[in-house]
Design a protein that fits this description.
The chain is α+β, with helices and mostly antiparallel strands and 89 residues long. 29% of the residues lie in helices and 16% in strands. It has 3 helices and 5 strands; from the N terminus they run E-E-H-H-E-H-E-E. It has helices at residues 13-22, 29-39, 48-52; strands spanning 4-5, 10-12, 45-47, 55-57, 69-71. The strands form 2 sheets. A 3-stranded antiparallel beta sheet has the order 1-2-3. Strands 4-5 form a two-stranded antiparallel ribbon.
């Protein structure tokens, strides 16, 4: 199975976290654990668009260059919480 499943929008969570890191978006260990808890499905995949909607810059930090990124926990549960990656490979 590939790192990215185009039609379903799922990507291997480790690959997704590497892409965030390459773009300078560094989440704390607690935020990474929250992403996994709320969005990781079947074999370590996340629906990347759903996760991106929950990542925000910490507006309490004055220095924009040294800004921290935050994962905002979803309100009312996760949309599509029973989604699956599907397919047998």
């Amino acid at each position: 199975m590939s790192y990215f499943l185009e039609k379903s929008g799922f990507i291997l969570s480790s690959a997704f976290f590497q892409m965030l890191d390459l773009h300078g978006i560094k989440l704390s260990a607690a935020d990474l654990a929250s992403v996994r808890h709320y969005y990781e499905k079947n074999g370590g995949y996340v629906k990347y668009k759903d996760v991106l909607h929950q990542i925000n810059i910490n507006k309490e930090v004055v220095d924009p260059v040294g800004s921290e990124w935050l994962f905002v926990k979803p309100v009312g549960g996760v949309k599509g919480g029973n989604a699956s990656v599907g397919g047998n490979s």
